[in-house]
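Sample entry (214 residues):
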Amino acid sequence: MHRENGCCRVRKQSSSCDQSRLKLGDRHEGLSVITSKFLEPMSFLLMTLPIVAFLCAWWLTTFSQGEDWRVGFLKAAVLWGSSTPLIMDLLSLFSAIRPATLASVWSLSIIVSLAVVRRHILDGRENPIRITRRLFALPAGDRWWALPLIPVAVIVIATGVIALIAPPNNWDSMTYHMSRVEHWRANGSVIHYPTNVVWQIYLNPWAEFAIFQF
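Predicted structure, serialized as tokens:
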């Protein structure tokens, strides 16, 4: 009798423990769902900051120096491309390569660009919409200049759709590019780390620096 009562007590305790574990599992699952729903739009917002920063730099280089919009695009690309490794190296000194710090840096660059453009507009007393139309005006007359842009647009759109929908799955990305980025994300720094894939350490890192921004 005593053994049966003891067995019943053990079964009741184990069943209660299982129920509590199930409840905790349900709670954790619910929290993970809520967190993912909250972080998905936030991650998309953070991903757009480097793009907005580039557009602001493009507008700034075109407007402040009165350049053609194509020359301004090239200058903005050089500025964005040279500032990316500088940001990564400076943040690495403090092991501070995190989404929050990168978002802060790009937000600061956007604010500075808009402040400079605002000052130019106030000094010149010109309408920003009119300035934008003048600086980014397309060639007048012959419309055949737009024909070469069609295949370029198709390539850009197709590449963008593939990048958004399909995750990286080729050998080079799995063993080198994305692995490198994930190591940096985990370490908060771009310093060397132990790995048997040695080309993650010594090959040119700029492409991965750019990937890390998104």
